[in-house]
Amino acid sequence: MPQIRPVSDLRNNFADISKVVHETSEPVFLTKNGYGNMVVMSMETYENYKLDIMIHARLKVAAVEAKLTDD
Fold first, then answer.
1. Pairing of strands 35-40, 3-6
2. What are the DSSP E strand ranges found in 1-71?
3. Residues β-bridged to residue 6
4. Facing residues of 29 across strands?
5. What is the pTM of this model?
């Protein structure tokens, strides 16, 4: 289940948020005035997220190229 916390927790409970994102490898969603404002995640999680996006994009291109060669 995602953690949703007020943005003020970033200032008041930084160590706790840092611990959560590193131990769970999950992002923490921060709200301002009850609305989504930002997401905090560990550097490792961010790098893995970027890698997943790159792999997905390359697989999509490969699938399109494979379909064009089949025709």
1. unpaired
2. 3-6, 28-32, 35-40
3. 31
4. 4, 39
5. 0.80
**Beta-carbon contacts of residue 20 (< 8 Å; ≥ 6 apart):** 3, 26, 28
Tell me which DSSP letter residue 33 carries. Answer: T
Domains of the chain by range and CATH? Answer: 3-70 (3.40.1620.10)
Q: What digits encode the pLDDT tens for the residues 49-64?
A: 999 999 999 999 999 9
Q: What is the pLDDT of residue 71?
A: 67
The edge-to-edge listing of strands for the beta sheet with 3-6 is 3-6, 28-32, 35-40
Task: Give the sign of the dihedral formed by CA 9, CA 14, CA 52, CA 50.
Answer: positive
Q: Which residues pair with residue 30 across a beta bridge?
A: 5, 38
